[in-house]
Amino acid sequence: MKRGAPTVLVVEDVLSEGVLRKVLRHFESKFSVVSCLGREGYGFIKKNLPAFNEASAQACFVVMTDLDDNGCAPSLRKLWHNQPFHHNLLFRVAIIEVEAWLLANRRSFARYLGVPRDRIPVDSQGIRHPKEFIIDLARRSRRPEIISAIVPRSSRRSRVGPDYNGCLLRFVDRHWNFEAARKNSDSLDRALKAFEAYAPRL
User: Fold this and answer.
1) Would residue 202 count as lying in a domain?
2) This prediction's pTM
3) What is the count of structural domains for the chain?
4) What residue ranges of the chain have pLDDT lower than 50?
């Protein structure tokens, strides 16, 4: 099979990295991931986006961030970099958080968490705080290992459980069906369409 173009990922966190790596394996004739930068929140991405845009003349860059409370994806893009992106840079925004892309695969995610599927809305983008929503779902899980991994312990200040990322990454790697999820997530569907249409110029 044809080897894809050298590709650098830029992400907010390890969960976003896992999601992108899973998706881009499906497009391995286009993308060959050579490194991943960030994992330090959105500030690192916002600060360095102009440098990534310049560097994309020599390599492909896939940059992904969460929308959070920033209105809409076009306004966030304009706020962070009010210049055209290089053809080789793909800038994608998960609405509202990357967790919403996992929730969009309702059947698989509900089964993995051990909760009824009807507890997850069809429109995952309408969930105001997907991370908190997943934690609340986990509290109702039939699986003790899900509760202990995802739900924060009352004696600690952490917003998430001790293996929150690990637990969700295992779901992404083993069970997440992004083709099913795209039907319930417009931002995921648009990201996949961008990957499908991508033709780097190196």
Assistant:
1) no
2) 0.95
3) 2
4) none
